[in-house]
Amino acid sequence: IVLLGTEVKSLREGRANLKDSYARVKRNEVFLIGLHISPYTHASFDNHEPERVRKLLLHRSEIKKLLGKTQERGFSLVPLKVYFKQGKAKVEIALARGKREYDKRESLKRKEETREMERLRKRHKIS
Length: 127
What we know:
Elements: H1 5-12, E1 16-17, E2 22-26, E3 29-33, E4 36-37, E5 54-56, H2 60-70, E6 75-85, E7 88-97, H3 101-123
Antiparallel strand pairs: 1-4, 2-3, 3-5, 6-7
């Protein structure tokens, strides 16, 4: 992953959030979108933008494989973790299939049921 100096320092402090981030292949390059790296606390005026688009460094053959898979319907690239290996920041990405419509309805139903249970529990003060 291509990072700025303050981003590396912030990552070493563990101040990154992968939620809602994904990778996209554009013109034979892979970019990570939506990765939030909090600004470095000890930096002066020259700090980085927390949610900028970051380029991933991959071999051409890896990019071709990913491009072929992501062009299939319903597949996307999702980052699983950010870690350091021999002083370099790495991102583990996975090929993921999106939820089907009936899966979404089922999880929404389950979520609504748990909310209702919590409301009842609070209303009757049951712990």
